[in-house]
Amino acid sequence: MGPPRPALLLLLLLAGGASAEYQLLENVGPSCSKDATRFKHLRKYFYKYEAESSSGIPGTADSRSATKIKCEVQVAIRDLFKFQLGTYMCVGRRSFYAHFPSSVLSHPSVTMLSLSRGRYELRLTTPEGEQVLLYPEKEEPKHILNIKRGIISALLVPPETREAKQVLFLDTVYGNCSSDLTVQTRTGNVATEISIERNLQKCDHFKPISTGVSPLAFVKGMIRPLSTLISSSQSCQYTLDPKRKHVSEATCKEQHLFLPFSYKNKYGMMAHVTQSLKFGNTSKINSRFFGEGAEEVGLAFESTKSTSPPKQAEVLKTLQDLENLSVSEQNAQRANLFSKLTELRGLSNEAVTSLLPRLIEVSSPITLQALVQCGQPQCYNHILQWLKSKEAHPLLIDIITYLMALIPEPPEERVREIFNTAKEQQSRATLYALSHVVNNYHKIAPQRTQILLDIEDYLLAQIHNDCTGDKDHTYLILRVIGNMGRTMEQVSPRLSSSVLKCIESTEPSLLIQKAAIQALRKMGSNEEIQEALLQAFFDGASPVDKRLAAYLMLMRGPSQADVNRIVQLLPWEQNDQVKNFVASHIANILNSEELYIQDLKTLLEEALKGSQLPTIMDFKKFSRNYHFSKSVSLLSLDPISAKIEGNLIFDPNNYLPRESMLKTTLTVFGFSPADLFEIGLEGKGFEPTLEALFGKQGFFPDSVNKALYWVDGRVPDQVSRVLVDHFGYTKDDKHAQDMVNGIMLNVEKLIKDLKSKEVPEARAYLRMLGEELGFVKLNDLQFLGRLLLSGIHILQGVPRMIGEAISKGSKNDLFLHYIFMDTAFELPTGAGLQLQVSSSGVITPGMKAGVKLEVASMQAELVAKPSVSVEFVTNVGIIIPDFARSGVQMNTNFFHESGLEARVALKAGQLKFIVPSPKRPVKLFSGSNTLHLVSTTKTDMILPLIENRQTWSNCKPFFVGLNYCTSGAYTNASSTDSASYYPLTGETRFELELQPTGEVEQYSASATYELQREHSQVDTLKFVTQAERLEQAKATMMFKYNRQSMTLSSGIQIPDFSVDLGTVLRVSDDSAKDKKSYKLTLDIQNNKITEVTLTGHVSYD
């Protein structure tokens, strides 16, 4: 017959494969019933799908901000419970404005964008017709997959039942939901119209998901209480084909109402989502191929990064407007603009990278404040990159890196950036920051990731497997390893093995060996570790502090055999310091009331049967453990225990403690014990220094003796006797030198002794809640000294710089922009889009300040204009990631400003103080509330209700050239049943301000002194206040004193009020030879005419 032909062979293979596939699918799910689905297998159904999301405030305005998606949907039924969904010709309509009663567009020009990334078909199964399982392609973006979830959720209808009403738990995009199903119409026994109502709060996946907020906000994380203030419901109407029972038409309407700003549960701030599916036709298919794929996911919504369309230009424009406020002085807008600036949270990392140089060029201080409060990874990464590019001081980089590491839930990008900074800086702050960020990262990503492996490789390279590298750096690395030991141990056991080699090796210094032992404090214990610690403890040749460090680490979780060996060998211990410490530690455990050491107490009691602990010796000379604990039982609650523990470890060859520790532990409500804080101090080499200072021939005793010898005989005997008795000085001692020379010789001797002695070493650490925050060394004081000297050199040039700045004139804006309240979260919607809700508060206190001094002309200018703006922003809206957004927003603003601008001049006996009249209204207080529709490209204010709109404006004279005015506007909508209550009635405002009338250019006050010498010496002092450009708005006060006639006269003139008052006081001498007598005459004048004369006499012998 010859070889088979290729075409025939291919046909046979295809036929065989189809037969095998058919048999496989026929055998899947033998318990499946055809009645469990409304679709027939080997059919393809065609639908037209529309989803519209809108946000607004019905009752206040008919306008709304909306987006719309349209798609052609094809559902291929490969088997009874295996479907394949495809979306084709999908287009999206970006934000537009429509009216609530209908969908009539108010703007005919709309933006269309193809959702081409929805080209992947989605496979899904519904085993038993209940739970829905999806098998998406790996390349399918999550937000597109969520939109397809919304289509599936709206399309699936429960199977036929005879009951008219029932409560079902159905799988939806919100998770498993309690659904009230009602059959509205039947044709025969077949339901043709069905309605389903859902309270979305009863769905198990309808939970708020936190989005980025400012880590510096004082009030944050209020997600749960804020989400409970949203009422969410969905209502679906289905029309079914009476013969084939498939869905002919489906409409689902969803409402999210923000209850604090609502009225009658149907008016107020809300978001709507409407989905509609209309059946087109059906066709037959003959392929049963399904191919489930590798990844299986559920129907419930998956959170994805809610990025808005790129808006670099808007962010840059906002920053430019903020910077221009220094010119326009419209600081009431400052808080609002900074709130808008934080929209850079929604930009991608690439967008921030390209935009950051331009932002810094406009205003680096405001940009830095925005980046710090951004709350997103792309912002924090660029902070460090920017500081490095500007070659900032290493200390500043250390501080910023450490603070960034403390922010919870770090993404991998931030871990990588801090890791790179730690490798470059290799400072204590950056390496401790690395340990903190690794611990925080592992809480949200417990799996083994590449970044953690890279960090492990770096740490292993730093300790060189035997810890024989640089002493200080190795010690630092071991402390850092101890801080993240639990995390790194779960990544790989290599790190703990290297640390054990450092413990067992004798090459590293004692300091390094102790640090290696303490690096195990968070790692789990095993036989290898326990044996290494036992060997270190029983090594009698090792120093005391190393042996006790190994003992304390061993007692974290010893076995019965370990405890038995310790108890048995303790009486034969040759080192009294070790023996006394271990005995006191075991005794404290046996007497402890702590809850979590009962197992250890049992092990010790078993080991001590038939034996006793050694007697605890003098605490002033021997190492010891101190312990106080208390346990309290509460009714119906788990007991609470607290412990305060301390260690004091002495060196056998010295009289000062070598190491000390204080720790507080709390155990509450059955949780694991928490170490609230722990402080440790260790040091050596202080004895020679103390001997040189306070020994018998030390600096202070010898100096005191010289001083006492010098004062002897120069003070009363009683004082001398007290000093001699107190300081032990006797007159038999010889003191040939005088006091000053003697003390100077003592200083020289002290310096010489200190140079010849060993330099003391000391270290101290602090731990909070088990996390070591860092440690300090004694020689850090040298670094602080260098910083202080550097600061002094800088300060020496400050007066000159200040003088130059003042003489040239300087005027600057000094403002702080702070987000003090920030809460933001998202919820799923039926269309698979994110409902975003946020509430934030921004405060921007500051002032415009300036000064200029002209020494030559004796003039000075001063400007001080403080102001503060507070803005509360509440936003409810829906976003299509990377495409469009729509929302409604309420802004509440409060503002205050005041200020002083003055010029001072001194010349020819005259001091003049000039205050220019305000050139614009000064807002002493203003408050406003506005509503806005937010779209992708702009934000428009919602016009207030016109009916019963109340406005007013009143001005009254306050001072010459100034009026104080109050103005306001609000809508009294109480007569309109559909209108919401305040503040949802539209724009509301109130203002109290000072308004210049334009009649006065400036206000001045001057004081002039003059001495007239023509006929008789007359001193004249004249005070003048005037509103310039108004001659009548002038007040003058003058004092004259005639030295010859001893006459004092004064006058006050205010032409604007027809005031011209004066006084003349004359003193005449009527004294006789044996009697002094004076006559005083006071004339009170009005318009230069004497109205009243008062005369008095004073005389005395």
TrEMBL record:
<keyword id="KW-1207">Sterol metabolism</keyword>
<dbReference type="InterPro" id="IPR015819">
    <property type="entry name" value="Lipid_transp_b-sht_shell"/>
</dbReference>
<keyword id="KW-1015">Disulfide bond</keyword>
<feature type="signal peptide">
    <location>
        <begin position="1"/>
        <end position="20"/>
    </location>
</feature>
<dbReference type="InterPro" id="IPR052418">
    <property type="entry name" value="Apolipoprotein_B"/>
</dbReference>
<dbReference type="GO" id="GO:0042953">
    <property type="term" value="P:lipoprotein transport"/>
</dbReference>
<dbReference type="GO" id="GO:0006642">
    <property type="term" value="P:triglyceride mobilization"/>
</dbReference>
<dbReference type="GO" id="GO:0008201">
    <property type="term" value="F:heparin binding"/>
</dbReference>
<feature type="domain" description="Vitellogenin">
    <location>
        <begin position="39"/>
        <end position="661"/>
    </location>
</feature>
<dbReference type="InterPro" id="IPR015816">
    <property type="entry name" value="Vitellinogen_b-sht_N"/>
</dbReference>
<dbReference type="GO" id="GO:0030301">
    <property type="term" value="P:cholesterol transport"/>
</dbReference>
<dbReference type="GO" id="GO:0120020">
    <property type="term" value="F:cholesterol transfer activity"/>
</dbReference>
<dbReference type="GO" id="GO:0034361">
    <property type="term" value="C:very-low-density lipoprotein particle"/>
</dbReference>
<keyword id="KW-0753">Steroid metabolism</keyword>
<keyword id="KW-0325">Glycoprotein</keyword>
<dbReference type="InterPro" id="IPR009454">
    <property type="entry name" value="Lipid_transpt_open_b-sht"/>
</dbReference>
<keyword id="KW-0551">Lipid droplet</keyword>
<dbReference type="GO" id="GO:0034362">
    <property type="term" value="C:low-density lipoprotein particle"/>
</dbReference>
<dbReference type="GO" id="GO:0005737">
    <property type="term" value="C:cytoplasm"/>
</dbReference>
<keyword id="KW-0427">LDL</keyword>
<protein>
    <submittedName>
        <fullName>Apolipoprotein B</fullName>
    </submittedName>
</protein>
<dbReference type="Pfam" id="PF06448">
    <property type="entry name" value="DUF1081"/>
</dbReference>
<dbReference type="GO" id="GO:0050750">
    <property type="term" value="F:low-density lipoprotein particle receptor binding"/>
</dbReference>
<dbReference type="GO" id="GO:0042632">
    <property type="term" value="P:cholesterol homeostasis"/>
</dbReference>
<dbReference type="GO" id="GO:0008203">
    <property type="term" value="P:cholesterol metabolic process"/>
</dbReference>
<keyword id="KW-0850">VLDL</keyword>
<dbReference type="InterPro" id="IPR015255">
    <property type="entry name" value="Vitellinogen_open_b-sht"/>
</dbReference>
<keyword id="KW-0443">Lipid metabolism</keyword>
<feature type="disulfide bond">
    <location>
        <begin position="177"/>
        <end position="203"/>
    </location>
</feature>
<dbReference type="InterPro" id="IPR015817">
    <property type="entry name" value="Vitellinogen_open_b-sht_sub1"/>
</dbReference>
<keyword id="KW-0445">Lipid transport</keyword>
<keyword id="KW-0813">Transport</keyword>
<dbReference type="GO" id="GO:0005811">
    <property type="term" value="C:lipid droplet"/>
</dbReference>
<keyword id="KW-0732">Signal</keyword>
<keyword id="KW-0964">Secreted</keyword>
<keyword id="KW-0162">Chylomicron</keyword>
<dbReference type="InterPro" id="IPR011030">
    <property type="entry name" value="Lipovitellin_superhlx_dom"/>
</dbReference>
<keyword id="KW-0963">Cytoplasm</keyword>
<dbReference type="Pfam" id="PF01347">
    <property type="entry name" value="Vitellogenin_N"/>
</dbReference>
<dbReference type="GO" id="GO:0034359">
    <property type="term" value="C:mature chylomicron"/>
</dbReference>
<dbReference type="InterPro" id="IPR001747">
    <property type="entry name" value="Vitellogenin_N"/>
</dbReference>
<keyword id="KW-0358">Heparin-binding</keyword>
